[in-house]
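Anyone? Bumping this.
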Amino acid sequence: MQEVTVSSRRSPIKVSSAIPVQTLSGADMSQLGIQNMADAVRRFAGANVRDYGGIGGLKTVSVRNMGAAHTAVSYDGAPVSNCQAGQIDIGRFSLDNVAMLSLAVGQNDDMLQAAKLYASAAVLGIRTERPVFDDDRSSAFRLMVKGGSFGYVSPSFRWWQKLSDRVVTSVDGSFLRADGNYPFKLVNGKYVTTERRNNSAIDSWHGEANMYYSLPEGGELQLKGYYFYSKRGLPGAVTLYNPVSTETLWDKNAFMQVKYSRRFSPKWEFKVQGKYNYGWNRDREYGPQFTGGEYNAVHKQNEYYLSATGLYRPLPELNVAFAQDGLINTLRSTMIDCPYPDRYTSLSALSIRWQRRLFTVTGTLVGTYITETVKEGDSPHDIKRLSPGLSVNVQPWQDEMLFFRAMYKSTFRTPSFNDLYYFRLGNRTLRPEKADEFDVGVTWSRSFFPAMDYMSVTLDGFYNDVTDKIVAFPTTYAWRMVNFGKVHVTGLDVTLATALSFTRGLKLILSGAYTWQRAVDLSDRDAKTYKDLLPYTPVHSGNASGIVETPWLNVGYSIVAVSKRYYMSENIPVNEIAGYAEHTLTLSREIDLGTCHLKLLGELVNLTDCQYDVIKFYPMPGRSWRLTGTFIF
Amino acid sequence: MRIRSFLLGALCTLGLGAMMVSCGDNDNEWDDGDSKVELPDSRVYILNEGSIDSNNAGIAFYDPQNGDFIDDIFYRQNESRLGDTGQSMIRYNGSIYVSVYGSNYIAKLNAACVQEKRTLFSSDPDLRGGVRYIAAEDGYIYASFYGGIVAKIDAATLEVKAKLNGLGANLEGVVICDDNLYVANSYEIVFNPATNKNDYVYKKEVKVIDLKTFSLKETLTVAQNPNKLVEEDDNVFLISWDYFDESYVLQFIEPKNNNKVSKLGYATDMAAGDDVIYLVDSRTDWSTRISTNTFSYYDIKAGKLVGSSFLKDAPAELINKSISMMSVNPENGDIYIGTTLFADGNGTMYRFRKDGTFVEKFDCGGQNPKAAVFFN
């Protein structure tokens, strides 16, 4: 697949061929004052982030409104999973050591990717920094301290070490604490009061160690160890007249992953990776309604993951890749009636790409087999499915970076352990939830005058069809998860990016994204909600940002805006949530101290003090500030 | 004093904010003080529970004479929301009392739904579990709470006068019969070290509290997970949400026979009328996801369960709707059956005459209709 680097400088949008891929670099995230992973991801066209507010609030991403469970998250190429909830809390990932974020709808260009990523409707890729050394150095260090509103303090360190010509290591560590008790305006009819978001304190630790070994016979071996711990208050929804909130959540997550990749010849490439993931969380709440005055729930998940992908080029025009993944997922939980499920998954992905001159076509076929065992009750039926995908890309003129593309992909999401086994709500007869994606798009990139490094525009029209949607289905008093829902999503994504270089080191980088979409519920013709917009799906959303780089000071400004939405299924005025626009201003300066660098960054977030909710009754912070000092030596 | 049109809110609120409206010009004893809306003599108020964490509980007004309707008269009158999860509503001495579970308070409203008093319970550690159901007698409101407590509350001031602790776990329905308060002790969640899991432990108790001494008098053994209680003709009827039986269990408690408990059959909801307990039993076929309602009634005078429906010409769709409430206007016997779409939309109310003939159906103005009170 042809991929074109359109500028020697960073490009916010990767101009690639058959599928829409958006990227955001660590440098841009810093320049724009992006606060966390959710804040970054919401700047991608088509990404809908559900943010329950504050540093510790749950944050999930749904791409083109297919549902969060249809979006895979990969961390340095290895999928991250949560079989219990079915969706990933992206809020727990630190941005401190992230080199690049990408969002690929359909699938990534990388034919050597794992089968699990081939099997997903969209992939949020998190790529961490790799050590880079100045010529004569074998180590590099970075110390960073952040401080800001609402008791936010976060020191972190990074240590890169070259152990030999072939072995490089990196170690990262960060701590974060915040009171999180930000003020918000509560409007209750004629009464407008200023309240505080209590029980929002968070402490978290994050550590990561990597080793990169260039093997003498060629190829590379990567080892990664990761640990995350957090304790956070869960303030819950703002409840009128009742400020009591006593819920606390502890999370621990550790994983080890190993990756070996090698190009044996111009015709053969191979990659194998393995991962062991341990997830633990404890939820505690106080109150007289709980026996002994306290309720505790503990959940433990294990994942054992092995993946191998081979890429073969029998002809110059033909690439054939085959990926095979095997996973074992387990859940041990104090959840009422938890049957201790063990899930065994096999994913096989065959991908064939044929490229002739300016025409590229890629076909994929993913085979899935899932079987599950439980200690109590009946096991769910095995899942056996084949999921095809096809994409076509045309570049009409060789000298013009103008690409037309079309894509179809069929995917599904497996019922989560909660869908299957949650006390009384779970349903062991659930089938997978199916999604069909269609996309037609165009990318154009060129420079119109010498000062312009590039300008790129993408335009994508899309249509998604989600059927057998897994929803909680009510009867009198009792609810149960069933395959009932049907959703159609129609939309348009537009992105624009440009970079201009002027004299005296003055540079201007502009980017923007806009999404128009209608995600409608077609589950039941007789329902009041038939053809209504799904909850939390705005018709309009977008963002714009500008960075001015000068030799003395860099200035970043960004706006994220979302139109009105409904927070309930029925589209009536009482269920509306107002739209919002959040503005962020950043000022930064780098000071060169010989072999050392000092970077100072000041951020003013939500500078208009816009009071808004992403999720109704989970207010977002108003105006806040953050200062960051980074010392690199 | 009949309102001519409620079609536009403007007609109801036109600068009448300061207007004192009372019913001094009719024979009714209730007070409409500070009402922003001119209301007719006949009034039905419907408590819409809303959905949890959404602060969308409300009280709708319905004029049974001409069908006029206000979605949320509580908001109209008080210019603030009722709160989160409306739980119970009763009429007592010409006033309306409403308990709101998530917001955890009780409010006293006048006959025009204007709030007169409100008592919040969140600052009382004993009562933080949340208020559930209420009943009233001799100047006091009795409220059940999660956490096994019943509070005795002055009906005029809403001051908590006494608390009776240790009644069990999560208390649900309450009813007063013959100076005794019957309280359903439903369930608790207990950690079981043997299995290393949390378990639901369903209780099999109805507590009988002597209201003269406000002390526990007796504990009755009933089908597990008792929930709803109603009283009629000095008899008490109970539905237990026994998830392990074929449906929810209808029971009969006879105060005049040493509180003898007997099983009558199955019902998912009930309402007391004139010597009659109206019943509905809803069963779901999970292979088709279709729920089917069977209507029947218990004839108290005859002492027998009558299997035929008390409805004559009900709209066909009612048979498959999720019924969240039934209530009977004590003045004329009209039967109100509320159906719910849960958080997917507003509920619908079906109104019938006492003889079962269908009158009309209308949108409830909010989610999950839960209770109704009647004035004329």
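Late reply, but here is one note on the structure posted above: The longest strand of chain A covers residues 452-474.
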